[in-house]
């Protein structure tokens, strides 16, 4: 009977293609939007992810996200270093700054100031140069996307000079930093240089990066720091999640992407439902003929679900391939889309959704089949 069902389906090429297109379009739209949504959330904590040496962050109690720091007094750093369970602690500076190239290009950037002595806080992978180069006068490191933003069409290189708030800066390294949420250009330099580039006031310390001793639990150390200093101290994992929660609660990103995903599902149900309903109406006599020769409704339901499953598999496969091509092709070569991937969890969830869409559309269209009169086949 399944062979008969597939022959009925494939016999109407137009309807079959319409059903496949509906599922493929919904799959592509939902996979793309959900993956981009999670990619944006990942960017909200990219700075935390890049600082792999530290596992405790100390900040002002009012800070809710890594992107909106509030300066601390310099006296906080020695206090944190003196707390039991802290292996080491270093300063970390983060701010926004305007960058101007010699060609006149002006761009917004995120500047991170790392400890002058240990240079803790820089991403591990250097594409050009090395971490030791940051000890040179006026030395900065930039990410590849930022370099291409400042010098369009040019190969990655070191030795270029920039203006940071009317001060000279020299690119000595290209570092593979994770894409940031607030800007495409990320700059790493020594703490002393970063504070001189911004001139934000007397208090310059954005965060204190700390490492819990090997025999200490980072959460317990963070609670101890908070109790002694009266500041906010959280683990890297907690700060990462707080930054994501801030984006979810204070931006329109969840509503925007959620609306697109819901519309994608509705469009899929509408296209597949209407097309499948039209297919069944045009083949109502064939279903009546099957009932006339003794085929029960349960067998007809199995046949129709077989058709639906066939459409779901083909349409989902095409849509998934299109989404994979997008993230593996154009998105891979565009700096603005770097860090966006087709997540396996998203692919699996959309596969389940595709089956639900098709089966829901099928059940809505099956009512006429279940009540069709077998005598219909004998009417002219």
Question: Quick gist of this model?
Answer:
By secondary structure, the protein is an alpha+beta fold.
Task: Walk me through this protein's architecture.
This protein has helices at residues 2-11, 13-44, 46-50, 76-81, 144-150, 191-198, 218-229, 236-250, 253-282, 284-292, 297-328, 344-365, 367-371; strands at 56-59, 86-101, 106-114, 126-128, 139-142, 161-164, 167-175, 186-190, 207-212, 232-235. By secondary structure, the chain is α+β, with helices and mostly antiparallel strands. Strand 6 and strand 7 (167-175) form a beta hairpin. The chain is elongated.
Sequence-ordered SSE layout with sheet pairings:
Blueprint: H1 2-11, H2 13-44, H3 46-50, E1 56-59, H4 76-81, E2 86-101, E3 106-114, E4 126-128, E5 139-142, H5 144-150, E6 161-164, E7 167-175, E8 186-190, H6 191-198, E9 207-212, H7 218-229, E10 232-235, H8 236-250, H9 253-282, H10 284-292, H11 297-328, H12 344-365, H13 367-371
Parallel strand pairs: 3-8, 5-7
Antiparallel strand pairs: 1-9, 1-10, 2-3, 2-6, 2-9, 4-7, 5-8, 6-7
Helix pairs in contact: 1-11, 2-9, 2-11, 2-12, 9-12, 11-12
Shape: elongated
* Average pLDDT for all residues: 83
SSE ordering = HHHEHEEEEHEEEHEHEHHHHHH
- Helix coverage percent of residues? 40-55%
Strand residues, percent: 15-25%
Question: Uncertain spans, ≥5 residues at pLDDT below 50?
Answer: none
Termini separation comes to 26 Å
Radius of gyration: 29 Å
Structural class: alpha+beta
How many beta-strand elements? 10
Q: Give the strand order, joined by hyphens, for the main sheet.
A: 2-3-8-5-7-6
Described by strand count, sense and barrel closure, the largest sheet is: 6 strands, mixed, barrel
Q: Given the structure, what is the number of helices?
A: 13
């Amino acid at each position: 009977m399944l062979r008969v069902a597939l022959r009925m389906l494939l016999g109407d090429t137009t309807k079959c293609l319409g059903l496949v297109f509906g599922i493929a379009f919904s799959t592509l739209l939902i996979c793309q939007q959900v993956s981009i949504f999670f990619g944006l959330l990942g960017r909200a904590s990219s700075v935390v992810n890049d600082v792999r040496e530290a596992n405790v962050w100390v900040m002002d109690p009012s800070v809710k996200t890594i992107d909106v720091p509030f300066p601390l007094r310099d006296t906080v750093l020695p206090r944190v270093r003196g707390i039991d369970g802290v292996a080491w602690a270093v300063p970390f500076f983060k701010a926004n700054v305007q960058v101007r190239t010699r060609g006149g290009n002006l761009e917004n950037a995120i500047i991170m100031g790392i400890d002058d002595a240990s240079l803790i806080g820089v991403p591990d992978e250097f594409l050009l140069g090395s971490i030791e180069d940051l000890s040179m006068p006026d030395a900065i490191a930039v990410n590849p996307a930022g370099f291409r933003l400042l010098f369009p069409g040019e190969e990655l290189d070191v030795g270029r000079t920039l203006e940071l708030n009317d001060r000279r800066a020299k690119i000595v390294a290209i570092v593979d930093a994770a894409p940031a949420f607030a800007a495409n250009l990320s700059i790493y330099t020594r703490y002393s240089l970063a504070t001189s580039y911004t001139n934000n006031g007397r208090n310059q310390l954005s965060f204190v990066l700390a490492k819990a001793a090997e025999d200490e639990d980072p959460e317990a150390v963070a609670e101890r720091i908070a109790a002694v200093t009266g500041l906010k101290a959280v683990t890297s994992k907690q700060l990462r999640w707080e930054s994501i929660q801030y984006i979810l609660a204070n931006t329109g990103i969840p509503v925007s992407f959620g609306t697109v995903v819901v519309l994608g599902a509705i469009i899929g149900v509408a296209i597949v439902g209407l097309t499948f309903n039209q297919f069944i109406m045009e083949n109502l006599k064939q279903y009546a003929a099957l009932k006339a020769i003794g085929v029960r409704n349960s067998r007809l339901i199995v046949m129709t679900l077989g058709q639906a499953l066939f459409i779901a598999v083909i349409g989902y496969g095409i849509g998934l391939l299109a989404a994979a091509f997008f993230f593996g092709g154009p998105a891979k070569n565009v700096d603005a889309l770097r860090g966006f991937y087709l997540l396996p969890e998203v692919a699996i969830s959309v596969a389940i959704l595709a089956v639900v869409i098709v089966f829901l559309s099928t059940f809505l269209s099956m009512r006429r089949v279940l009540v069709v009169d077998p005598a219909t086949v004998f009417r002219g």
